């Protein structure tokens, strides 16, 4: 993939980056009050029209990690106090936390440590393991209920390894809370295998269906 897919918007105190390969157009940026992001304007993002702290706050709303920043005065984006995997109604898995990504294919901007990603659950994305909104055309349906509770954990933060297993599920290893689409903290534990083929009968968890349907992870 071309480096031109990553767009740089420099500011005096803070720079903003947009990786269009990861963007699923949720709209948290353009719907924010103010003129940091204005559709149709050139440049679309202007970090100098908004206070630095406000820029940070708006960029950190992006659930896919397509937006990021480099603060020339302050610290890097902090890790959230909770590692969470949010099961989106008929959509992807939003992972937030101190994420260490593995097996992410050709997306070098997301290699290493990240804070926010949107991961495919339907099996149809052309940008696996990331969501590209293919669930809509594929007619993927899962309302985001979580029936299991997990083994429990005394902590919710710390490093969380997120690995896309070859032609298999997502392996999440580390302190983790899985939130149902209702926002309920449904599952707590330190290791989970989550479906990314779209065929599991026990969503969001893997039940081995990827072998039956011949799922290919790339």
Automatic annotation (TrEMBL):
Q: Which residues form the Iron-binding zinc finger CDGSH type domain?
A: 106-141, 179-216
Q: Which GO terms describe its molecular function?
A: 2 iron, 2 sulfur cluster binding; metal ion binding
Q: Which InterPro entries match?
A: CISD (IPR052950), Divergent_4Fe-4S_mono-cluster (IPR010693), FeS-contain_CDGSH-typ (IPR018967), MitoNEET_CISD (IPR042216)
What's in the keyword line of the UniProt record? 2Fe-2S, Iron, Iron-sulfur, Metal-binding
Q: Name one GO cellular component term.
A: cytoplasm
Stored PANTHER family = CDGSH IRON SULFUR DOMAIN PROTEIN HOMOLOG (PTHR46491), CDGSH IRON-SULFUR DOMAIN-CONTAINING PROTEIN 3, MITOCHONDRIAL (PTHR46491:SF3)
What name is this protein filed under?
Iron-binding zinc finger CDGSH type domain-containing protein
UniProt organism field: Marichromatium purpuratum 984
């Amino acid at each position: 993939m071309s480096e031109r897919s990553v767009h740089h918007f420099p500011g005096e105190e803070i720079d903003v980056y947009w990786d269009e390969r990861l963007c699923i157009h949720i709209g948290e940026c353009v719907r924010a009050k103010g003129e940091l992001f204005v559709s149709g304007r050139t440049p679309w993002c202007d970090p100098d029209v908004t206070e630095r702290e406000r820029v940070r706050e708006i960029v950190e709303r992006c659930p896919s990690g397509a937006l990021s920043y480099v603060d020339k005065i302050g610290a890097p984006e902090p890790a959230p106090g909770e590692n969470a995997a949010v099961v989106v109604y008929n959509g992807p898995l939003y992972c937030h936390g101190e994420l260490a990504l593995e097996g992410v294919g050709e997306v070098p901007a997301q290699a290493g440590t990240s804070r926010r990603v949107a991961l495919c659950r339907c099996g149809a994305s052309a940008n696996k393991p990331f969501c590209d909104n293919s669930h809509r055309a594929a007619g993927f349906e899962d309302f985001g209920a979580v029936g299991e509770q997990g083994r429990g954990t005394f902590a919710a933060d710390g490093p969380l390894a997120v690995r896309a297993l070859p032609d298999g599920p997502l392996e999440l290893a580390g302190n983790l809370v899985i939130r149902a689409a209702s926002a309920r903290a449904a599952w707590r534990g330190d290791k989970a295998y989550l479906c990314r083929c779209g065929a599991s009968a026990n969503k969001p968890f893997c039940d081995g269906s990827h072998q039956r349907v011949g799922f290919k992870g790339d």
